[in-house]
Design a protein that fits this description.
- The chain has about 70 residues and is mainly α.
- The chain is built from 3 helices and no strands.
- The radius of gyration is 28 Å and the shape is rod-shaped.
- Helices cover about 90% and strands about 0% of the residues.
- This is DUF3618 domain-containing protein.
- It comes from Pseudonocardia yuanmonensis.
Length: about 70
């Protein structure tokens, strides 16, 4: 049973549009800027945790003291 050329052309156009939509969605998902923004959000959430925040402050203070000691020794 042969299909008419118009229905074949219509099917091709629908498939092409669906493929274009899929490629646009993939390009949006794979955008490096999106990865950076997601990473920034995750880091911001981690830094809101008092355990992590105070641990980093402590490490920074120890490093600052070590540098000062090295400079004045």
């Amino acid at each position: 049973m042969a299909r008419d050329p118009e229905s074949i052309q219509s099917e091709i156009e629908k498939t092409r549009d669906a493929l274009a939509d899929s490629l646009d969605a993939l390009a949006d998902r794979a955008n490096p800027k999106r990865f950076v923004d997601t990473g920034k959000q995750q880091i911001a959430v981690k830094l809101e945790d008092p355990k992590i925040r105070y641990a980093l402050i402590g490490v920074g203070a120890i490093l600052a003291l070590a540098v000062l000691k090295k400079l004045f020794s």
